[in-house]
């Protein structure tokens, strides 16, 4: 029985794809993040030549990582590396807008430095934006590895296939889930525990849109759950805490959960067991 188990494990190794260790990919993207934001870097670059040298060094590391998995890539490692780097300036601009949105949107944020250095929301968004580029370049598993590492570190689960506009603000963040086909506009703010998910669907729907669309300038408060591909939250709307929503709402709407809480007098329950 034991030898049969060992044989099965060995066979799985023979059939396995030779992927690089997730940590190596994650570390390279972390280094890109440090290069873009000196608030995260241990090294301060004194001139533009040092910045350029570090950029080229990271490019070689990224190229080497992609070359190690060339057999399973849709294009040559050089093409994917250059393609990713072509997106990097756009990623940087969007991340700067995210920092600005968090500073403006969170009364507790004292500076951009604090947001970049300490906010899990910014970190999760940063890793998502880089992973999203790899997802679009048809490397979905690698992209998922990156966002899942960020998920394990921040508690914020953003699928790399989601589309998210600029000035995205995550406040607190723990427990947020953003599904694969979610579409989020610009200037959207969401709080902890928000789920943008799918209704229960058949596996055959995997390539279809399954998650909601959130238009521009929407605020979604803690614990709200918004489900379904046809659910659209119109622009400039506010979705209150703990709302369960499976249908669209027009622009400029407010949606609140009406709690069924009654407050009585203690003397009314005296005599009951335990009182």
TrEMBL record:
GO terms for molecular function: acyltransferase activity. The keyword Calcium does not apply. It comes from the Bacteria. Gene3D superfamilies: Hexapeptide repeat proteins (2.160.10.10), serine acetyltransferase, domain 1 (1.10.3130.10). Keywords: Acyltransferase, Amino-acid biosynthesis, Transferase. One of its GO terms (biological process) is amino acid biosynthetic process. NCBIfam families: EPS_EpsC (NF041874). This is Serine O-acetyltransferase. It comes from Sporocytophaga myxococcoides.
